[in-house]
Amino acid sequence: MPLRIGLISDTHGLLREQACDVLRGSDMIVHAGDVGQADILDRLGEVAPVVAVRGNIDTEEWAARLPRTEVLEAKGATLYILHNLSELAIDPAVAGFQIVISGHTHKPNRFEKAGVLYINPGSAGPRRFSLPILVARLRLGERPWEVEFLSCG
C-alpha cells in the first residue's frame, strides 16, 4: 500500500480549512517552513502526524523547537526537508537522498536532478501575487513516485 505524504509550506500564519480538507487521507504531513504560528502545526496534527522545519519567518520563541532541516525515511525513500532550496548545503545524490522537499518561493515545482526528486508544494497561506494556493501529495511505495498538486484556495 502506498504511503501518502501531504506536503504544505509557507502558511505564514494562515491555515485554510480547504488545506486541511485536501490533506485529509494523508498518512503524514510535511510542513516545509514559514509556518507563522504554532497552532498551525497543532491543527495539522489533527489531520495526520506532522514533520516540520523552520522557515525564515519562524523567529518567535515557539519556533526554536523546529529544526532547520529534517531527514525522513519512508517506504524505502530517504527525504531531506528544508525551507529554502538555495540554502541546500549538501549534494543530496551523494548523501543518499532520493527526495528533497522545500518551500520559500511560493511557486509549486517538481523536477529531477541527478536521480533526486525535488518538490516545492507552493504556498498554502496568504495569496502572493497571482500564485495559486496549493498543497501537494506525494505517494511513495511504488515507482515512479507520484506527486500531485492540489488547489485549496
Written account of the structure:
It is a single chain. The protein has 153 residues and is mainly beta. It has a single domain, classed as Purple Acid Phosphatase, chain A, domain 2 (4-Layer Sandwich). It has helices spanning 17-23, 38-45, 92-95; strands at 3-8, 28-31, 50-52, 69-74, 77-82, 99-101, 109-113, 116-120, 134-140, 146-151. The termini are far apart.
Question: How would the blueprint of this fold be written?
Answer:
Elements: E1 3-8, H1 17-23, E2 28-31, H2 38-45, E3 50-52, E4 69-74, E5 77-82, H3 92-95, E6 99-101, E7 109-113, E8 116-120, E9 134-140, E10 146-151
Parallel strand pairs: 1-2, 2-3, 5-6, 6-8
Antiparallel strand pairs: 1-9, 4-5, 7-8, 9-10
Helical percentage: 10-25%
Main sheet attributes: strand count, strand direction, barrel closure: 5 strands, mixed
CATH superfamily: Metallo-dependent phosphatases
Put simply, the count of helices is 3
Counting helices, strands and paired strands, the structural category is mainly beta
Q: Widest sheet: strand order? A: 3-2-1-9-10
CATH topology: Purple Acid Phosphatase, chain A, domain 2
Q: Can you identify the CATH class?
A: Alpha Beta
Tally of individual domains: 1
